[in-house]
Predict the structure of Nucleoside-diphosphate-sugar epimerase.
Amino acid sequence: MKTIFLTGAAGFIGYKTAEKLLTKGYKVIGVDNMNDYYDVRLKEFRLNELKKHKNFRFYKLDIENYEAMRIIFENEKIDAVINLAARAGVRYSLEDPFVYLSTNTLGTLNLLELMKDYNVKKFVLASTSSLYAGQKMPFKEDLPVNTPISPYAASKKGAEAMSYTYHYLYGIDVTVLRYFTVYGPIGRPDMSIFRFIKWIDEGTPITVFGDGTQSRDFTYVDDIAEGTVKAVETETGYEIINLGGNEPYELNYVIKLIEEYLGKKAEVIYKPFHKADMKATWADITKAKEILNWQPSISLEEGIKKTVEWHIKNRDFVKEIQLP
């Protein structure tokens, strides 16, 4: 039984990735600092689900805490590391860029240094489509993403670069996954789909920055988790691989789907487009198909339906969740 050290285990993608690993028979050592960037009750909800699995062990700690992680590496035989711990969100990174650098870049360095010292040879790093700002679509991994337009994207670029350095110097096998707008049940309440479903259901006006024609390559969380597990199982050397839905959809269409599945009409307030946001994203997933044998299986329509159904089933719980 292989042991995976999974950071950000109580997070949106981390929870679903841990669940898939456990189902496949892996032992998962999950860590998460349980920070209050968004309502901790969502993280506790996910974590309680994971704790039902006998092969899941959890440590509440921060990947910025090098010495605390060293103790775990000393006491456990770790076969691979998946780093999903991150400060996420483009807009908030403008308010507190320091925490993005310390978690996303320095935290990644801590993990790589421990992997070097304890001879752990497989690393999967979660990165972001935000790096492609200003590039020609569909976004391919070989585009020169050297001009990030937010501290969030810059911190992820730093993590990618550090990962390559450790691959080059110490032979660590690295797969960098650039995720594209992940959504689904038990999602992040700072992201539009969670917020829109909650607000529309409660009769609260929703806020759209721009005119709603901006488009995203929305990707269902189960597909993202499946791609992440395939990445940890695949030897790549050093590769950057997009995981995306492979088709952009306008935000207005997403709102229409939510209205349809909830059976309620949205009241929309439009505000100016945010400078740090991207007008559109669209993943070229050729490499994911060729290297990981991965492609998304859940359509946007099915994914939104599943997400709305989870919301309705857990309406009383979601009603109490505070939005950031």
